[in-house]
Specification:
Lysophospholipase, globular, alpha/beta, 289 residues, Rossmann fold, RhgT-like, hydrolase activity, acting on ester bonds, SGNH_hydro_sf, signal, 7 strands
Length: 289
Amino acid sequence: MTLRPLLFSLALALTPAVACAALDPSITERPTPTPIRASKIVLVGDSTTAVQGGWGPAFCARHVSAFLSCVNLARGGRSSYNYRAEGSWDIALQEMRPGAYRDVHVLIQFGHNDQPGKPGRSTDLQHEFPDNLRRYVREVRAAGAVPVLLTPLTRRQFRAGVLIDDLAPWADATRRVATELDVPLVDLHARSTAAVQGMGPVQAMRFAQAPALPVQVSAAQAGTTIGAPPAPGTPAPGGVDANAIEPMGQAKIAFDYTHLGPEGAGFFAAMVADELAQQVPALRRNLIP
């Protein structure tokens, strides 16, 4: 038997790596690779963070590296109360246990559905809302993860050219809890209100999920935003803000001043990523601007 058939016969009896080395002497034993150290972000909140109508999908798709997993558990119509009451928080708790991850950061944004007038969702601003945030923070830490509080994303309604800042009290309450418990704070409310006020009512309309009606554009050009007029034969809403009667579940693809289409999601996701990189240095190397 010649030398080459003999080597081939021997190689068949060896492990694949050794067999390859026997057949090709240029292949040397590979060194053991350095284990990767991956991190994780879990998003918790309402429709302004959720998979449709929120900034969360753009954030997870565009602003995290391959070493930073991103799980969006935000759900439309949820407040700091009913997100827990329905069991969504129990699911989030399972996702935030470190396991194979080096660390897990949990981003929590509530406020929109904690406002008055939303049965089964509204919370008391002075006591219940901040107490709910405190409890979330304690339980995230108990699970071995790192809590990050976000102030609520602004709405985009205007009166006489001035942004109607109806979420300011909930943003203030979130800031106070973050200071009290020494929690990193992404002040999305402050940055988003400044940005939307700067662009004005007409330009801000492009952030919605669908185009505005001509009558709404005309009103915005005069400085004051309006809801859609009622259909013929439908009673007028009586001054009730359409944002205050947001249904539970997935946001419908329609024009409003709260939810986000692709352009709005991209704009505010970049804002969150930038603010997060500043406030949580441990995540900076795995965040993409």
